[in-house]
Write a structure and sequence with these properties.
single chain; 7 helices; elongated; mainly alpha
Length: 137
């Protein structure tokens, strides 16, 4: 039995060594192998996000140096983000803003209401207040 994500990692490691127009083709590999975040480890999700940001940068014909300057980041921070997805939340936001991807972040962590009962429950939680203090004489 193959461990979760190991087969996909194996394929990505094999495909990433192929050169395509002077750049590694790992971003093309993720199009072939659909990344499903609910089955991925946090490291795989970070890597996939880094690859997606790299793909966006290349689609806009920007060099890493240009994007780093636009985002107000060091070149090393951007390279680290694109290679393995490791970065601070601030770095991720700066890069997304520099690439014009603010709208893509609008739906992150939005509370999804699926039924009237859930809506009422969420509304009740948001209206909860502290109980009145007991009077001590």
């Amino acid at each position: 039995m193959i461990a979760r994500g190991s087969y996909r990692s194996h394929l990505l490691s094999r495909i990433s060594k192929v050169r395509y127009n002077g750049a590694y083709a790992i971003f093309l590999a993720l199009r072939v192998i659909k990344v499903t975040f609910h089955l991925s480890t946090s490291a795989e999700i970070q890597h996939a996000l880094g690859v997606r940001l790299r793909e966006q940068r290349l689609a806009q014909s920007l060099t890493q140096r240009e994007l780093a300057q636009m985002a107000g980041l060091s070149l090393g921070a951007l390279r680290k983000l694109e290679s393995n997805g490791q970065c601070s939340l601030e770095t991720l936001i700066r890069v997304a803003q520099a690439l014009g991807l603010q709208e893509a972040m609008d739906d992150l962590f939005v509370l999804k209401r699926q039924s009237i009962a859930q809506m009422e429950q969420i509304d009740a939680v948001s209206r909860r207040q502290r109980a009145p203090r007991k009077k001590t004489s």
